[in-house]
Each structure stands twice: as C-alpha cells, then as structure tokens.
C-alpha cells in the first residue's frame, strides 16, 4: 500500500488551517503512460479490485490493463459506443453497454469474451452494482430513466426519473443517488423497490455529471460542468458544501483510505479535495494532467489515479457559456495516464 510519507501526511492533512496554495510540490505525479490505440472516443474507467484490472470503455471496445504491470492485456470487442462498466461479485462477470444497439454485454474478465447480450435503454451511460439489492443500475440519459437489472435472473425494470441521468452512486444500504444533468438535481432511489424517494436541488451546480460517495460519512459528491463540486448529506438531501474544481468534469471519485475526493476535468486538471470531516472539506492543490482527461478511476490499495486522454485536433469550442471547451481528438492517440501519490 503506497501512502503519503509521514511528514507530508501530517503537514497536509492534520493541519486543516494550512491552505492548499502552500503545497510545495504536486500531490500526484505521472508515473506511467499506456498507449491504447483505436478510436479517440472514450468514456468511463473502472478499476476492478478483485482482479487488479482496469477497464476502459472507448467506442467499440473495452480495453483492459493489468495495473500490476501497466500492460495492455487486450480488448473486449463487438461493442457499439460503450460507456459504463461494473461487475457482479456473485459470478465475477462484468457488464458494459452498447448505446448504439441499446444492449448490455456480459463478459468474462479472464477470457475478455462476451458471454451474453441483454436488452437495454436508449442512451446508456454510467452503471453501478448495488450490494444491498444485488442489482445493477444503468443510467440512460435520453430515456430519462435508470435501468435496474437483476443479474441472478436477468430481470429488468425501467425506473423513470423525469430528468437525464449521467452517473450514479450507491451507499450499500439500499439508496441510489443519480445526477440529473438537465435538471441540476439529484434523485434518490430505493434500490429494493425501484421507487424514486426524493429529488434534491443542487444550488450552485450546473449540469451535474460526475458522482462519488462516502457511505461512512453519509456524503455524496457531484461534480458540475460550471467548475463546482457539491457535497450533499445523503440522509437529508441538504447541501453541505459547494467547492471549486476545474471545468469540464465528467467523473468524480472518492478514496476512502486517504479521505480524498477527486474530479477529473477536461481542461487538463485533476481537482483534489480532502474530507477532514463530514462537514469540513479542504481544497488542495490541483494536479496538471492533459486536455480531455475528464474520466477517471482510483485504486484505493496503492492510491493510483487513472485517467485517459488523447491528442486534441485544433482548438476546443465552447458550446455553453461558462462551461469548458469541447475538443475533437486524433484517432490512434488514446493513452492511459497513471498517477502515483507523492511520497
């Protein structure tokens, strides 16, 4: 397990009064790059602790990297515009989507072969496994719904949300939290019944996209396109904090070992926030990454942070005032970026 060194840990985390601006060196440094090839259209990453593999959804494939060696193991093929990835712990099988064909693919992480295909909804995006209900939940933006799948029998249920979901998070106690990108809201869903139990406004947050959660402190984190991250009390729906991050976030993550909240931003930064307590959050110095590195995964065992980027084609175009530019990327330049915590 790769921790921060004892001196830097005490200086950084125990003294909450020390501003992040005083940090003398980056908290994370680029340790490895892994060329992935293929088209430069990608979405979510998923670190699978059970096997030590990193799964990267991009276009018609899911690329698989052995994180012990940072070597590309191979690709899961036969997909069509894939986005989300998750696993069923009972079988060890993985699930990903093909939004182009409105299907879900069930794959073996050892053979990297698709074993079966299931129907899905329009415009699938992020997905997550819920240990309380033992179901898989898939966000479907254009469907304004979440798909609930029972992997034990492949039974499916559509849960209407009244807004476009991007990503989601579970607390393991029967609550699902969904970012509604077009409503600037967060929906709460009972994972056992499929009922929407609350819709919470997110003041100061425009277009919530990334989602992460700390079940222990009962806080959920939503990263927003206007350069803000909102912290919400999962018991009350009340906003606890509104914090600055980089613009263009498409993914948030939480490292429970180090009590760090992350936002991956397309403007080329990794925002880092320290959770000092359930109601106290400290913005730390951001880490320079690469343009387009907007999705991420975290390895809590050693603290590594994984991002993906590609070489931009020309200048980005701002399509929404106050949001990050959007870029096109050169095919064949897709690269995994591995960041180690400083020691």
Question: What would you note in describing this structure?
Answer:
The protein is mainly β. The chain has one helix spanning 6-14, and strands at 28-35, 45-48, 53-58, 61-66, 71-76, 85-87, 94-98, 103-108, 113-119, 124-130, 135-140, 145-150, 155-160, 165-170, 175-180, 185-190, 196-201, 208-214, 219-224, 228-233, 239-244, 249-255, 260-265, 269-277, 280-283, 287-288, 296-298, 305-309, 335-341. Strands 22, 23, 24, 25 and 26 form a 5-stranded antiparallel beta sheet that branches. Strand 15 and strand 16 (185-190) form a beta hairpin. It is globular, with a radius of gyration of 19 Å.
Furnish the topology, listing elements before pairings.
Elements: H1 6-14, E1 28-35, E2 45-48, E3 53-58, E4 61-66, E5 71-76, E6 85-87, E7 94-98, E8 103-108, E9 113-119, E10 124-130, E11 135-140, E12 145-150, E13 155-160, E14 165-170, E15 175-180, E16 185-190, E17 196-201, E18 208-214, E19 219-224, E20 228-233, E21 239-244, E22 249-255, E23 260-265, E24 269-277, E25 280-283, E26 287-288, E27 296-298, E28 305-309, E29 335-341
Antiparallel strand pairs: 1-29, 2-3, 3-4, 4-5, 6-7, 7-8, 8-9, 10-11, 11-12, 12-13, 14-15, 15-16, 16-17, 18-19, 19-20, 20-21, 22-23, 23-24, 24-25, 24-26, 27-28, 28-29
């Amino acid at each position: 397990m790769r921790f921060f060194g004892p001196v830097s840990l005490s200086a950084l985390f125990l003294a909450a009064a020390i501003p992040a601006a005083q940090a003398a060196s980056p908290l994370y440094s680029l340790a490895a790059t892994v060329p992935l090839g293929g088209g430069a259209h990608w979405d979510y990453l998923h670190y699978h602790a059970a096997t030590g593999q990193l799964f990267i959804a991009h276009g018609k494939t899911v690329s698989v990297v052995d994180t012990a060696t940072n070597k590309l193991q191979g690709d899961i093929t036969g997909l069509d515009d894939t986005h989300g990835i998750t696993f069923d712990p009972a079988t060890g099988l993985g699930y990903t989507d093909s939004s182009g064909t409105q299907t879900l693919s069930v794959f073996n992480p050892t053979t990297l072969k698709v074993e079966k295909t299931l129907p899905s909804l329009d415009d699938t995006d992020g997905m997550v496994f819920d240990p309380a209900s033992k179901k898989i939940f898939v966000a479907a933006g254009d469907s304004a719904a979440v798909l609930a799948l029972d992997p034990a029998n492949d039974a499916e249920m559509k849960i209407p949300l009244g807004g476009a979901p991007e990503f989601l998070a579970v607390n393991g106690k029967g609550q699902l939290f969904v970012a509604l990108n077009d409503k600037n809201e967060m929906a709460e869903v009972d994972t056992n019944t499929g009922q929407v139990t609350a819709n919470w406004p997110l003041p100061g947050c425009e277009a919530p996209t990334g989602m992460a959660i700390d079940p222990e402190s009962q806080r959920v984190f939503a990263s927003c396109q206007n350069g803000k991250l909102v912290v919400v009390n999962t018991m009350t729906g009340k906003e606890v904090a509104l914090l600055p991050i980089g613009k263009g976030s498409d993914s948030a993550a939480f490292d429970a070992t180090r009590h760090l909240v992350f936002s991956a931003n397309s403007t080329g930064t990794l925002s880092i926030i320290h959770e000092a307590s359930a109601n106290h959050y400290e913005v730390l110095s951001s880490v320079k990454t690469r343009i387009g590195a907007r999705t991420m995964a975290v390895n809590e065992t050693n603290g590594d942070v994984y991002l993906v980027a590609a070489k931009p084609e020309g200048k980005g175009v701002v399509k929404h005032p106050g949001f990050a530019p959007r870029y096109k990327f050169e095919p064949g330049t897709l690269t995994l970026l591995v960041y180690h915590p400083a020691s």
